[in-house]
Amino acid sequence: MKKEQNLTMVGPQPIKDRVILFIGAMFRGRWFTGLCCLAFLSVATFMNAPLGASDNEAQSLKELLTRYDTSRCRECHEEIYVQWEKSHHARSIMDIFMDGYLKEGVLAVKSPNEATRKNFPCFKCHFPQLEHASDQVASEIATAILNKDQETMKKLNINCLVCHRDMGIVHGFPKKDVLYGKTDVAEHPDDGFKNVHKSPIMTQSVMCGQCHGLGPVFDFEYPVQCATLYGSYLHAYIPAGGTQTCQECHMEKANHTCPPDFKDREDTSKRLAQALPMQVEAMFYQPQIDPGKLVPTVLVETRITSRAGHRIPDG
Length: 315
Fold this sequence. Notes:
The protein is α+β, with helices and mostly antiparallel strands. It contains 13 helices and eight strands. The protein has helices at residues 15-27, 31-47, 61-67, 78-85, 98-103, 123-126, 135-146, 150-153, 160-166, 205-212, 229-237, 246-250, 265-275; strands at 178-181, 195-198, 216-217, 224-225, 278-285, 288-290, 293-294, 297-304.
């Protein structure tokens, strides 16, 4: 007896492949399977649409920055916005030395015009908005970085929309006109985002772990090793009895500066002293190596105890 073939849908497939699959099923008389394929095609096409004000990729850096403009958030959230401006999130590109990557190594380009999104694996976390833009935008960013255009580079950051929309949920896709926060807001006074939905992860460490624990990035032509901080938190801090979340330590009282600020040396030193207390014991003595010859000697014993919720350093 001839075995009946099964149609298996494995992950999102290219549109062309799905259409061929549907037509093939129809011709073999498998109408029900064909209709199921058509339904899958329709749903998958909708779900694969990028985030943002438009379903199309941004064709210029100006267009992308306009879609992710959060300056209007300041009108109602002044204190939080000022805190964010002082955070590392507000300068996520300024501090990672991307010009070095573009000049030497496997990500280097001879000209900024050659740069594509593949040249920016770091942007998966440092500027995830690029996922919703064309390679032309990547080229414009490469030009700004190589020319050390500080005015443009400081506009590339992790802002309100990245955390309160794109990363607001981990299962499914954010709704187009909705923001995500700690509570529901039925009437949000904004023309673009009129509702705020309660996010189940906004106060959980997994919210931060989406970037701060990504580990190896394999979905680029040249994989890179990224931060594993969230993994350290899960595999060491929690099993040792730790109970605090990232937000409880780094966003105390909803502080959106998300300290430490490594440019604030005094505050950073204070925090490191609390997280990594160090005990030092020293003993001085003078052994007599040769008759009549004393050699001044110091024996130093140092103990460092980690009280942090993750390994240090990490990102």
